[in-house]
C-alpha cells in the first residue's frame, strides 16, 4: 500500500521544523503544504479542530497534531532507521522531559521579547538567560543533548537556532558570547543535512519576527 | 539487584495521584514520601532542582520528573497492565488528549473557579467549551481507554474528585450532569475503579485545602 504523508506547516515555525527534520532523518517522502496562518485552510481546520494550529501530519488520511507527539509517532512508525528516541526507558524519559522543558520555557519566554514592552520585556530577557544557562548545564560536555548521537531533544531544540538571531537582536545580547556551548552544539547539528536543509535563513526569520512585533505592539 | 522505588508526592495533588494509580495498576511496590510543599525536603530539592515540584519518582537512585513523563516511564519499565495504547496512532491520540488536559483544560478550569471576579464569565465559557471537546472525545466509550482505564483517564483524574472539590469550594458550577452527561458518568465510573478509589484523597479535607490554597469563593 502506498504511504500518503502530508505535512501542514508554516515556513518559520520552529515546531513545524521539528517534523521536517524528523521526516528527513527517516528519509520519508511527503507532500509539504504551506499554511497562511491568517487565512487557515479548510483542511487544517478539519484536521486540527481543537487547536487549529500547525504542524499537522496527515498519514494515510489520519491527522497527528502537536510537534513532539508527531516526532514520536514518526520515530515509532518508521523505526527501521535513524532512531530519535534512545532505547533505554530512563534516557527516553530524560529526552521527553527536556523536550517539554523547551516547549514550556524557551518558546513562551522567547516570544515575550516581541510581544511585550518595558518591565515585562526586561523580565523575559533575564528569564531567557537563565533558561539557556540551564540548557547549557544539561548539555555539559556531550556532543549532542542525546549523548553521542543526534536525538529527540536535539530535534526539539535545534529549530530555535534559526530564531536565535531574532532573540539576540530583540533581547540585545549575544548567544555566542553568553552561551557558547549552545552555539557550538547548534553548529554541530547544522552539519547534518536534515537540519541544514530545514532551517530557514535567520535574516528572513528576523524580518518575520519584526513584523510580528509591529503587529503585536503596534509600532 | 533489589529495586529501589520511591515516590515523592503530596496528598492533595492530582499529579501525584496519577503516579500512584499507575503504580497500583502495574502492581509495583514503592515507598511513598509525603512532601510538605511549604517546607520542601532536601531530598525533593536534590532530585528536582529545576522546579522543585512533586511528583518525583526515584527509581534506583534516578529521578523522574513531570507526571506525564513518569507515566510513560512506568508503562515502558513494568509489564502487565497497559497504560498507553499499543498502536502508534492510538498512542499519538492519547498523548494529544493528555497534553490538552494539562496545557489547556486544567488552567482554564482554574481560571473559571478561582480567577478574578471580573473575567469569571468569560473564563467559565472557555472552560465549558474545552470540557465539551473532551465530552465529545469520550463518545460512547466507558473510559477514554475503552473498556478499562488508560492514559487519558489517569491524566483526567483532576476532572473527577478535584473538579467536584473546586466546584464546592469556589461555588462555580462547571461539569453539570445536564451539560456533560458522558463526563459525569465517566467521573463516577473512574472514581469507582479499585486502583483509583484507594488512591484518592478524602473529599472534605481536599475541598478545605483547595479553598485555602486558591482563595475566596465566587459568591
TrEMBL record, chain A:
E.C. no: 2.5.1.18
Annotated GST C-terminal domain residues: 88-208
Keywords: Transferase
GO biological process, any: glutathione metabolic process
InterPro entries: Glutathione-S-Trfase_C-like (IPR010987), Glutathione_S-Trfase (IPR040079), Glutathione_S-Trfase_N (IPR004045), GST_C (IPR004046), GST_C_Tau (IPR045074), Omega/Tau-like (IPR045073)
Keyword Transferase found: yes
Any GO MF annotation of the entry: glutathione transferase activity
Uppermost EC category: transferase
Domain GST N-terminal: 3-82
Cellular-component GO terms for this entry: cytoplasm
Catalytic activity as recorded in UniProt: RX + glutathione = an S-substituted glutathione + a halide anion + H(+)
Similarity comment text for this entry: Belongs to the GST superfamily.
UniProt protein name: glutathione transferase
Organism: Carya illinoinensis (Pecan)
TrEMBL record, chain B:
InterPro entries, per the entry: Glutathione-S-Trfase_C-like, Glutathione_S-Trfase, Glutathione_S-Trfase_N, GST_C, GST_C_Tau, Omega/Tau-like
Record's GO cellular component terms: cytoplasm
UniProt superkingdom: Eukaryota
GO MF term set: glutathione transferase activity
Keywords recorded for this protein, A-Z: Transferase
Reaction equation(s) it catalyzes: RX + glutathione = an S-substituted glutathione + a halide anion + H(+)
GST N-terminal domain: residues covered: 3-82
EC number: 2.5.1.18
Chain segments annotated as coiled-coil in the UniProt record: none
GO terms of biological process kind: glutathione metabolic process
Domain GST C-terminal, chain residue ranges per copy: 87-214
One matching Pfam family: GST_N
Stored PROSITE patterns: GST_CTER (PS50405), GST_NTER (PS50404)
CDD domains, A to Z: GST_C_Tau, GST_N_Tau
Family: Belongs to the GST superfamily.
Protein name per UniProt: glutathione transferase
Species of the source: Carya illinoinensis
Amino acid at each position: 500500500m502506498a504511504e500518503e504523508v502530508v505535512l501542514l506547516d508554516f515556513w518559520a515555525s520552529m515546531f513545524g521544523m521539528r517534523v521536517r527534520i524528523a521526516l528527513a532523518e527517516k528519509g520519508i517522502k511527503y507532500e509539504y503544504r504551506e499554511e497562511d496562518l491568517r487565512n487557515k485552510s479548510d483542511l487544517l481546520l478539519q484536521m486540527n479542530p481543537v487547536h487549529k494550529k500547525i504542524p499537522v501530519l496527515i498519514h494515510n488520511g489520519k491527522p497527528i497534531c502537536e510537534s513532539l507527539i508527531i516526532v514520536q509517532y514518526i520515530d515509532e512508525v518508521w523505526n527501521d532507521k535513524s532512531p530519535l528516541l534512545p532505547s533505554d526507558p530512563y534516557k527516553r524519559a530524560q529526552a521527553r522531559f527536556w523536550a517539554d522543558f523547551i516547549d514550556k520555557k524557551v518558546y513562551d519566554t522567547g516570544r515575550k521579547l516581541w510581544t511585550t514592552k518595558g518591565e515585562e520585556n526586561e523580565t523575559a530577557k533575564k528569564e531567557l538567560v537563565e533558561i539557556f544557562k540551564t540548557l547549557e548545564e544539561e548539555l555539559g560536555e556531550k556532543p549532542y543533548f542525546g549523548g553521542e548521537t543526534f536525538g529527540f531533544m536535539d530535534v526539539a531544540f535545534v529549530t530555535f537556532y534559526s530564531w536565535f538571531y531574532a532573540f539576540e537582536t530583540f533581547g540585545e545580547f549575544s548567544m555566542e558570547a553568553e552561551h557558547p556551548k549552545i552555539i557550538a552544539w547548534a553548529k554541530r547539528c547544522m552539519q547534518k543535512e536534515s537540519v541544514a536543509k530545514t532551517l530557514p535563513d535567520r535574516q528572513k526569520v528576523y524580518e518575520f519576527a519584526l513584523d510580528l512585533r509591529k503587529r503585536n505592539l503596534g509600532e | 539487584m533489589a529495586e529501589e522505588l520511591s515516590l515523592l508526592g503530596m496528598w492533595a495533588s492530582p499529579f501525584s495521584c496519577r503516579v500512584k494509580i499507575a503504580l497500583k495498576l502495574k502492581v509495583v511496590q514503592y515507598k511513598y514520601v509525603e512532601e510538605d510543599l511549604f517546607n520542601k525536603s532536601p531530598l525533593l530539592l536534590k532530585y528536582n532542582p529545576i522546579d522543585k515540584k512533586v511528583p518525583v519518582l526515584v527509581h534506583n537512585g534516578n529521578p523522574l520528573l513531570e507526571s506525564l513523563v513518569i507515566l510513560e516511564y512506568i508503562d515502558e519499565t513494568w509489564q502487565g497492565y497497559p497504560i498507553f495504547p499499543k498502536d502508534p496512532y492510538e498512542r499519538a491520540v492519547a498523548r494529544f488528549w493528555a497534553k490538552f488536559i494539562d496545557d489547556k483544560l486544567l488552567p482554564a478550569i482554574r481560571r473559571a473557579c478561582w480567577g478574578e471576579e471580573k473575567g469569571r464569565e468569560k473564563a467559565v465559557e472557555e472552560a465549558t467549551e474545552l470540557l465539551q471537546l473532551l465530552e465529545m472525545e469520550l463518545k460512547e466509550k466507558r473510559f477514554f481507554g475503552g473498556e478499562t482505564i488508560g492514559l487519558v483517564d489517569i491524566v483526567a483524574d483532576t476532572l473527577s474528585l478535584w473538579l467536584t472539590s473546586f466546584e464546592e469550594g469556589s461555588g462555580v458550577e462547571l461539569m453539570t450532569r445536564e451539560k456533560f452527561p458522558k463526563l459525569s458518568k465517566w467521573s463516577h465510573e473512574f472514581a469507582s475503579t479499585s486502583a483509583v478509589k484507594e488512591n484518592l484523597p478524602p473529599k472534605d479535607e481536599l475541598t478545605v485545602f483547595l479553598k485555602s490554597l486558591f482563595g475566596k469563593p465566587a459568591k
